Amino acid sequence: MENASVAIGVVLLLLFIVPILLMIFTQSAKEKKHISSLKKISIDHQMNLDEMELTNLFLLGIDQNAKKLIVVEPQRNMEFNVIDLNSIHESFITKRTVPIPGATKNKTAVTHISLELMKNNPKQRVSEITFYDEDDNASLSAESQLFLANKWNDLIQRNLSA
């Protein structure tokens, strides 16, 4: 009876642990593939990335010496955009909110967070990097994405031409 209980316990343990380990392994392999793709794109454009970021929505990389930013969108068949920060005049974060029904005044819910990159002459948007969209299931929490957007906005602003 004791051996049967141990065997059942081991089988049940494996039933719960194996799927978790499999999920961790596949996620790790996916991240390595994305990092490798980002590095390949950077090498193709003569860039040496100082900082990289991997999220569900995009991959970001910045070369502070060349003052270039790479934005790769894995959900769009690894489409990428290399942005020359010398041509960017300003960057800022846009945050859209909506009032929460039935809540007290000034209570809002964030629906969209993005980082806007603008040219000066003529004033036009070069790129918009969406960090959070309420309608997108791949986004993490709005607070964590706002933190990430602030981090990248600071990095970009340090590399803009004055």
Describe this structure in words.
The chain has 162 residues and is of the alpha+beta class. The protein has one domain. The protein contains two helices and seven strands, in the order H-E-E-E-E-E-E-E-H. The strands form two sheets. Strands 1-2-3-4 form a four-stranded antiparallel β-sheet, covered by helices on one side. Strands 5-6-7 form a three-stranded antiparallel β-sheet, covered by helices on one side. The termini are far apart.
What descriptive keywords fit this protein?
162 residues; alpha+beta; 2 helices
DSSP summary: helix tally: 2
Mean pLDDT: 85
Which series of helices and strands comes N to C?
Answer: HEEEEEEEH
Low-confidence residue ranges = none
Q: Give the beta-strand count.
A: 7
Largest sheet: 4 strands, antiparallel
- Overall geometry comes to flat
What's the gist of this structure?
The chain is of the alpha+beta class and 162 residues long.
Per-chain topology:
Blueprint (H helix, E strand, L loop, with lengths): L1 H43 L6 E4 L4 E5 L4 E6 L5 E6 L5 E10 L8 E12 L4 E10 L8 H17 L4
Antiparallel strand pairs: 1-2, 2-3, 3-4, 5-6, 6-7
